[in-house]
Amino acid sequence: MFQTLQTAFKGPAQARAQHRQLVKGYRGIESGLAAIESLCAAPMNDKSTPIFLLSAGWRSGSTLLQRLIMSDKRVLIWGEPYDECGQIQAMADTLKAFRPGWPPAEYYYDGTPPDQLTGSWVANLFPAPGSLWQAHRQFHDALFDAPATQAGAARWGIKEVRLGIEHARYLRWLYPDARFVLLYRNPLEAYRSYCRYGRSWYDTFPDKPVFTPTAFGSHWRKLMEGYLAGAESIGAMLLRYEDLIGPNPPLAELDAYLDIQTDHGVLAKKVGSSERGGEKVKVNALERWLLKRAVGPVAAKLGYDW
Fold first, then answer.
1. Angle between the 165-174 and 213-230 helix axes, to the nearest 10 degrees?
2. 117 in a structural domain
3. Distance CA 184, CA 131 (A)
4. Which 8-state DSSP code applies to residue 107?
5. Tens digit of pLDDT for each residue in 69-98?
6. Is the pTM here over 0.85, yes or no?
7. In a domain, 2, yes or no
8. Which domain, by its residues, includes 152?
9. Is the Cβ–Cβ distance between 292 and 300 less than 8 Å?
10. Distance, CA of 160 to CA of 155 (rounded, Å)
């Protein structure tokens, strides 16, 4: 009787045991990418070299760095395009089910003429993995590359404040020669700057608002943990905002890594909402405590402690 009830409410024991085994070591998008990369990848002659500027959250100097990179007139960097839609995140998320043994090899279409398939098992008939890669790549090419080319740019890129290391790995799957700059800033200073804008922004709308110091800090910590652990694996350049605006910014290294020539004078030009040198918002003791708790030891390890 107990087994009957358990099966009715929880499902068959064998299915549950198989599920437990499958999710051991499962890492979502990154697990899916690991499985699918062995099946399909960019063509060997692919020469596209987009620039992905990923920042650990808001108000970390990403727009300043975007402007600096775009001072090379050949480059157009899109600024958080359709940000609250989470399009890149959603596209990457579609790969998370891939794993060893799924899909079974026999599910993939093998080129048999359609008129010869009526006598075959077609309940699970998938386009080949290469077609899936092409579909993902064409989406990004059409949305980002094509309009940049039409505008006269020789290279394109994206500035984002929401993408984690798993999304960077997804973009590298699509663009193996892409360049990644991972930017970060003292989370207290970033949050202080964020407060000037009413704390009303979203990670994705409407389900992931970032209205509190805890939400802001948790977002920062999650991105930073991934950046620090995975930067080397994607060949990324890690960059501190404090170094970027310091007396000796690593501009020669940045230019060499991105293979561009920037106008270093851009760093001295204030545009729009930059608060450098301006009045700072005060963060009360409770919010400082909540933020510090959210960013955890990651901030302290980076020398950001208060």
1. 50
2. no
3. 36
4. G
5. 999 999 999 999 999 999 999 999 999 999
6. yes
7. no
8. 49-95+130-301
9. no
10. 17
